[in-house]
């Protein structure tokens, strides 16, 4: 049994699933609409949607004979919260690297002016 975050990242590991989520950021879509840009069968797209649904990233509703898929943002927000600490870690390192490089450039300018 895996935890929610593992399930989310596992679902996001596949580029087709990420493309499906990107499409759903534009609004709800049927399986047929989601399948349009892919060179794969509808059952294959349905399997990808099922993985996303099991991860809580997509919900489906039924409108007559059509099943409409919608993006569910809560798992993405949890993944973003997890990554936020790492983002801060790297931002701090890049800021220190930027300061060090600026100091090196200033030191080089000063040395050239003294020559």
UniProtKB/TrEMBL annotation:
UniProt protein name: Metalloregulator ArsR/SmtB family transcription factor
SUPFAM superfamilies (alphabetical): Winged helix' DNA-binding domain
Species annotation: Candidatus Devosia phytovorans
GO molecular function terms attached to this record: DNA-binding transcription factor activity
Residue span(s) of domain HTH arsR-type: 1-91
InterPro entries: ArsR-like_HTH (IPR011991), HTH_ArsR_DNA-bd_dom (IPR001845), WH-like_DNA-bd_sf (IPR036388), WH_DNA-bd_sf (IPR036390)
């Amino acid at each position: 049994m895996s935890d929610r975050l593992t399930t989310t990242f596992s679902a996001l590991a596949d580029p087709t699933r990420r493309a499906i989520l990107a499409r759903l950021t534009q609004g709800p879509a049927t399986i047929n609409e989601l399948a349009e840009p892919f060179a794969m069968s509808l059952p294959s797209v349905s399997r990808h949607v099922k993985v996303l649904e099991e991860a809580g990233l997509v919900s489906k509703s039924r409108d007559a004979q059509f099943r409409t898929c919608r993006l569910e943002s809560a798992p993405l927000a949890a993944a973003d919260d997890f990554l936020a600490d790492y983002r801060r870690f790297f931002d701090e390192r890049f800021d220190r690297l930027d300061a060090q490089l600026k100091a090196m450039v200033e030191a080089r300018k000063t040395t050239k002016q003294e020559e």
